[in-house]
Every structure is written in C-alpha cells, then in structure tokens.
Specification:
By secondary structure, the protein is of the alpha/beta class. The chain is about 50% helix and about 15% strand. The longest helix has 15 residues.
Length: about 220
C-alpha cells in the first residue's frame, strides 16, 4: 500500500464483502492510492465520508437502506471535495442519469473494473469525468445542448431524498412501524410519505412498489 503525501484517499462502499476485498487489493497495489474506509451500506458510506473526507468515494448503486444514488447526493452535500465514482452492474439510463444528477463524476460498469478502475479513480480525483463506453453512449443520447442530461420519464427522480429512503425501506419489506423506528419519525409521517410516493410513482399497493424497486435494481 502506498504511503506519504499525494495519496488519493479512497472510500469503498459495496454490500458484497468479496467485491470490496478484491477492489481493495487492486487499489493497495498502487503507490498513489490508499483505502481509508470501507462501508457495506449507503448510510455507513455517508457517515464515513463525513468522518474521513476521502478524495474519492466508490459507491455501488444497489445497497440496502440508502442506495448509492441517494448516498451520492448526501456525500456531495456533506463533503463537497469528495469525487463520487459509481460502480454498477447496470447501465440503465435511469441509474446513469440519476447518478449524474445526484453529483457523481464517474460511472463504471463492474465488468470493466479490471480495465478501467484505476484510470477512473485518477480522472475523477483530478476533476474530470469518467464513464464506461456503454454508459457514455447512454448519456450522449440523453444530453441537452447545454451538456446536461434531461429529466427522463422515471417518476423515481421526482421523489425527495427522504421519500427515496422510505421507498427503499418499504421495498425491502419493512413495515411502516419498523421504518418509523429506523428513521426516528412517527408511523403517521411514514404513512404520509408512503401515500405521496404512491401518488408520484402511480403505484397501487406495496406489491407494485416492491416490483418497481426490483426493476430498478434497488432490491433483489
């Protein structure tokens, strides 16, 4: 593992321990990189980013509780110098556009990790963007003349950060009472958010909510 000044300090966040271990091994072979923390959930990633202020945070999208896109928005807000690199198995435009809008600087597909990871980390740390070729192609198709991806027809993008968190928890099978306990709010507040989520996403029951989260790759 590298040491000394000029290190790129990296936070790894993925709920698969083996994937984290493999990624860590790749990074620690580099003289200019050091893994300063590991997280297995979005909430833990946010806390560790606040604590360590890493140069780069590598986030998976499909983490429980708070997914990688929601965690991206929180980390960007709480640790602006931290560059976010999303690692995902999915290049669906909803994930790509959602990640970019949340503040991610790069999006790398997991099947390209061995070829592209080190370049991606160095680029996003230097203030540049990095996207896997298929992801870049997706983004290019969605760009406005001003270079920004437009809102696309996914109602998930219209949810607030709190609504996305509750959506995730409900989709994972938690009852409203458990969600209320986890978030420190009343059951009534959870039910109010749930109603708004259903309305915004045109869902008619918890089964449809779960299915919509599965289709987004947010729960398995």
């Amino acid at each position: 593992m590298g040491s000394g000044a000029g290190l790129i300090r990296v936070l790894l966040a993925d709920d698969h321990a083996l994937f984290r271990a493999g990624t860590r091994r790749i990074l620690e072979e580099q003289r200019d990189m050091a893994v300063v923390a590991e997280a297995n959930s979005g909430a833990e990633a946010i806390d560790l980013a606040r604590e360590h202020r890493p140069d780069v945070a590598i986030l998976d999208i499909g983490m429980k509780g708070i997914n990688g896109i929601a965690a991206t928005a929180e980390i960007v807000a709480q640790s602006p110098p931290t560059a976010i690199l999303i690692l995902s198995m999915y290049s669906d435009e909803r994930y790509v556009v959602g990640a970019v809008r949340a503040g991610a600087r790069g999006f790398l597909l997991k099947d390209s990790v061995e070829q592209g990871l080190l370049e991606a980390i160095r680029k996003v740390q230097a203030g540049q963007a990095f996207f896997s070729p298929s992801v870049a192609k997706t983004l290019k198709k969605r760009m406005n003349p001003d270079g920004l991806p437009p809102e696309i027809g996914d109602p998930y993008l219209r949810l607030t950060e709190r609504e996305r968190h509750i959506y995730q928890l409900l989709a994972e099978g938690n009852a409203s009472k458990q969600v209320a306990a986890d978030l420190g709010i009343s059951v009534h507040t959870v039910e109010t958010h749930r109603t708004r989520i259903m309305e915004k996403m045109d869902l008619h029951g918890i089964a449809e909510l779960v299915l919509s989260a599965v289709r987004r790759g947010l729960v398995s």
